[in-house]
Design a protein that fits this description.
Blueprint: H1 2-24, H2 30-48, H3 61-74, H4 76-79, H5 82-104, H6 114-123, H7 148-160, H8 164-188, H9 194-206, H10 215-218, H11 227-239, H12 249-252, H13 255-260, H14 286-290, H15 295-314, H16 326-343, H17 348-364, H18 371-395, E1 401-403, H19 412-430, H20 437-455, E2 456-458, H21 469-492, H22 497-510, H23 513-523, H24 542-553, E3 558-560, H25 573-578, E4 581-582, H26 587-593, H27 598-611, H28 618-624, E5 627-632, H29 634-637, H30 641-651, E6 655-662, E7 667-673
Parallel strand pairs: 3-4, 3-5
Antiparallel strand pairs: 1-2, 5-7, 6-7
Helix pairs in contact: 1-2, 1-3, 2-7, 2-8, 2-18, 5-8, 6-7, 7-8, 8-9, 8-15, 9-21, 9-22, 11-23, 15-16, 15-21, 16-17, 16-18, 17-20, 19-20, 19-21, 19-22, 20-21, 21-22
Length: about 675
């Protein structure tokens, strides 16, 4: 039954996407039409729901399906064309690749940002007028984070009546597939042969870095480490080598590793308290391993959409493609920049750099852009973004930009070892500036971004060895992926054989990450495979499954769960998987996002006292916070029966106990408001 539901859901999704593609394909190339259709519908409805929430819209999918079928019927001649079929095949291949990752590893668990991303999505699920209730900090609103892509995922889930976890995983696959199909479209406009294009897309989708080819040569795995942990270490080590994985060289380093990356010693510390700076890069392909539906996914989508539009405007038309509409292409290109503000604000400056580089290049080519289209597209996009941005601007965390201090710069050899594929492609593309003038613009754009990233950083609450971590993690991955696609394309399309072969070698070396990827997928546990709702690992215990099943069918209300730590714990998972409202989310995150209000920590302390059965004003506190449900799980059962008895005595006059498991010494269940 699960597979039948999955197949039916994917057919329904494909029908809607194909209808959009066929309709907009009258004016746009099919990969761009598909992407613009998804983006346009989401952007318009997001703006509309800031004035009137649409509520539950699951009733609408039969109507939208009929519209999609009608569009395919009206465009039936175009749908039979070789160009449409080729575009669908490319998208299907990209979708299947992402779905394979999520099918094997679907679980949503409290590491990295999977739980927070699900929380972002579920704020939008009720369909209330935006900004919605913050389900981790009621009665406040969710208006402090750039979560436009999470709105889009929730919108899809609301339309198709999907559970949030299922929508989370399918949305991840969809955004990544849209991005890869746009990347293929860009490469196809310059590279005629399929094999080089496949190599380029493989390098992009796998996610290797410059350090990947020598990862196994610089440090030996700890013999006591289980094989699946070793495989996992090599996966994240390629992205987080500088200042993180490289620290293993001190104790486990090979001769080569110690020669290339000598460990920091007391003698060469610039200050007594200095720690090796952690400078990571999470590029496009790395996202498949990471599995988070986090804002970098949306920023990659907008990057590849902008690049596909530039290629459509500047490259010769692909055989069978629709006629070029320069004004529409330029308007859409300008429109990607404001959307970046609510998708991944960190990347907005570089999105603007890319647009300005293209505008400057157009003037250098004595072919100025159409300013009416640029301004019109940018203004329309900004107007649609404004309702979301107006709340976000008032609540956003202050993150000033500062120059990088001399001791915080990336060590030169590590910089080269990590980013050499991008540096090589910058050089190769520069050699193509005469044969392909667009290459010069791309070199200037991505070269400027790289220089900027080494001399300024965004100051967030992190400090010490993490002072540049967030900045490079977000900036480097974006520019590296864009450079790999664009500069790699320019080099592979070169008339010079030596240029092409250097590009082949560079890209092929990053593809050695395929070995680590295959080893990781083979050695990692797959007990949750196929359970795309993402909750199986948490609900594998029958009483917990019964509790969440009960709450899914119960009236929506505030659910109190115990404190297990300040972040990245199982706190809130019962509420998230049952579509309820948490009385409080992870304290560290809630405090950070809401401007460090003191009551976050006061509530956390009261929660601890309540679950220990030592809170005399428990009933007044529960009433004040409108708590409807109180969870007592396996974790609380370990606190002993006396704690449960104290709570039951204190609140029994207003809350009824609903057990899902009981033996002589422990209980699992809910207290429910009478």
């Amino acid at each position: 039954m699960t597979m039948i539901f999955l197949l039916g859901s994917l057919i329904l999704l494909w029908l809607h996407l194909a209808g959009l593609t066929a309709t907009l394909g009258h004016w746009l190339p099919y990969p761009i039409a598909r992407a613009v259709g998804v983006l346009g519908v989401t952007l318009v409805l997001c703006a509309l729901e800031h004035f009137v929430g649409l509520g539950q819209i699951g009733w609408a999918w039969p109507l939208t399906s009929a519209l999609a079928l009608g569009a395919l019927w009206l465009q039936k001649i175009e749908c039979r064309s070789a160009a449409f079929k080729a575009s669908e095949r490319v998208f299907a291949a990209a979708f299947i690749y992402g779905l394979a990752w999520k099918f094997v590893l679907p679980s949503i668990y409290p590491t990295s940002e999977r739980v927070t991303d699900l929380y972002f999505m579920q704020n939008y699920y009720p369909g209330d007028t935006l900004p919605p209730l913050d389900i981790w900090y009621p009665p406040h609103h969710f208006d402090f984070y750039y979560a436009f892509q999470h709105y889009g995922a929730a919108l899809m889930g609301r339309l198709f009546n999907w559970q949030p976890g299922f929508a989370y995983n399918i949305a991840f696959v969809l955004v990544m597939a849209l991005s890869l199909s746009l990347a293929w479209d860009f490469a196809s406009r310059f590279i005629s042969r399929k094999a080089p294009r496949l190599l380029l897309i493989a390098a992009l989708a796998l996610g290797g870095t410059g350090i990947t080819p020598i990862m196994h040569l610089v440090a030996d795995p700890n013999p006591a480490t289980p094989p699946d942990w070793v495989a996992n270490d090599f996966m994240w080590g390629s992205a987080r080598f500088i200042g993180n994985y490289e620290l293993r060289i001190k104790d486990q380093g090979t001769t080569l590793g110690r020669a290339l990356f000598p460990p920091l010693t007391e003698a060469n510390k610039p200050t007594p308290d200095f720690e090796t700076r952690e400078i990571p890069m999470e590029n496009f392909g790395y996202q498949f391993y990471l599995g988070d539906f986090h804002p970098p996914l949306g920023s990659y989508f907008l990057l590849f959409l902008a690049l596909a539009l530039i290629a459509w405007l500047e490259a010769p038309a692909i055989a069978g493609a629709v006629a070029l509409s320069p004004r529409l292409g330029q308007a859409l290109l300008a429109g990607t920049v404001p959307v970046m503000l609510i998708t991944n604000t960190w990347i907005f400056p570089f999105s603007a750099v890319l647009l300005l580089s293209w505008i400057g290049w157009r003037y250098q080519q004595k072919n100025p852009p159409d300013w009416t289209a640029i301004i019109g597209g940018g203004l329309l996009s900004a107007l649609l973004v404004y309702p979301y941005l107006s709340g976000l601007a008032n609540q956003a965390i202050n993150t000033p930009i500062y120059p990088v201090r001399w001791m915080d710069h990336t060590p030169v050899l590590r910089f080269i070892a990590f980013l050499w594929p991008m540096l090589v492609l910058l050089g190769l593309a520069l050699l193509e500036k005469r044969a392909r003038p667009l290459a010069l613009m791309l070199v200037i754009a991505f070269g400027a971004m790289l220089v900027i990233s080494e001399f300024i950083y965004v100051q967030d609450p992190s400090g010490g060895k993490f002072i540049r971590t967030n900045t490079t993690m977000k900036w480097w991955g974006w520019m590296y992926s864009g450079a790999l696609l664009t500069l790699g394309t320019m080099a592979l399309a070169s008339q010079r054989k030596v240029t092409r072969w250097i590009a082949y070698a560079s890209l092929a070396l990053t593809c050695t990450y395929a070995w680590d990827t295959a080893n990781y997928l083979m050695s990692t546990g797959k007990a949750d495979a196929g359970h795309l709702e993402g909750s199986r690992s948490f609900l594998n215990d029958p009483p917990m499954r019964d509790m969440v099943g009960y709450l899914k069918n119960a009236p929506r209300g505030v659910l109190l769960e115990n404190w297990y730590g300040d972040a990245y714990t199982n706190q809130t998972l019962v509420a998230l998987f049952s579509n309820q409202i948490s009385m409080q989310g992870w304290p560290n995150h809630v405090s950070l996002w809401h401007g460090a209000p003191r009551d976050v920590w006061m509530q956390s302390d009261k929660t601890k006292a309540f679950y220990h059965g030592t809170f005399p004003e428990a009933l007044d506190w529960l009433a004040l916070n409108h708590v409807r449900y109180i969870a007592w799980t396996r974790a609380e059962a370990g606190m002993g029966l006396p704690a449960w008895q104290n709570i039951n005595t204190a609140i029994g006059s207003q809350y009824s106990w609903h057990p899902f498991y009981a033996d002589g010494g422990s209980q699992v269940g809910l207290w429910i408001k009478k």
